[in-house]
Amino acid sequence: ERQIFVTRHGESQDNLTGRIGGDASLSPKGRRFSKALARFVKERRVTFALDLARRRIQEEKESKDPLRDSDDEDQAADELEEHKTEKKVRATAEAISNSQFTIWTSMLKRSMETAQSFDPDEYDIKHIRFLNEINSGSREGMTYEEIKSQFPNEFQARQDNKLYYRYPGMGGESYIDVIHRLQSMIIELERMSQSCLIITHRVVLRILLSYLLEWSQTDTPHMLVPIHTVYELRPKPYGVELTTWCYDE
Ligand code: G3H
């Protein structure tokens, strides 16, 4: 069992002015989110490790002695048994939470800076270009209002078919293009067995969540995925358990 955390970068300077694309740094609030994220992930890892350790040890006990009834024992023996179990739980939980934990960010500043509050000795941090935000081609650095007033037909075309609409200009991408460039990341994510945190951007986050949670591709470009929200996923044999956490300062 493992935890997969997915989030967008902290608030950037461009988020404050509503500019798309670009390579801005975090705002002061974005930097505070980065610190809170590091504390939060650590806390959730410990809770997860304790839960898992308790379950594993309980299952182990049941498989060894399925018919044992604690009423049969005297109280002192029960207490000793409980104490031993709790010690074993803590040791197992410590081993689980010390196991490798990977952090992937994109190669854009706002995403890499969001990972800066994580201790590099404790985490395996990788910056991956495939996780970069959709390339808005010649519309990089513009606000939606500017696109709407200067290029109304283009703006409308994107509204009408956001999934297939490709931004004009060098490197411009559509959602479908981003889905294709994420294929190898998704294969890697499914292959690895350790827990991880992915710090990325709105479009990439929508695509990853849709894939992991098997949501419809048509709805993907319209999903509400605000910044400072962390999606914690736990893959289970029957599907994926999702918990959504909001940072509120
Ligand atoms: O910078 C790009 C935006 O985050 C993309 O969001 O696909 O909803 O326009 P959108």
UniProtKB/TrEMBL annotation:
Biased composition (Acidic residues): 70-80
Biased composition (Basic and acidic residues): 59-69, 81-91
Chain positions covered by the region annotation Disordered: 59-91
Protein's name in the database: 6-phosphofructo-2-kinase domain-containing protein
UniProt source species: Parasitella parasitica
Span of the entire protein shown here: 335 to 583 of 599
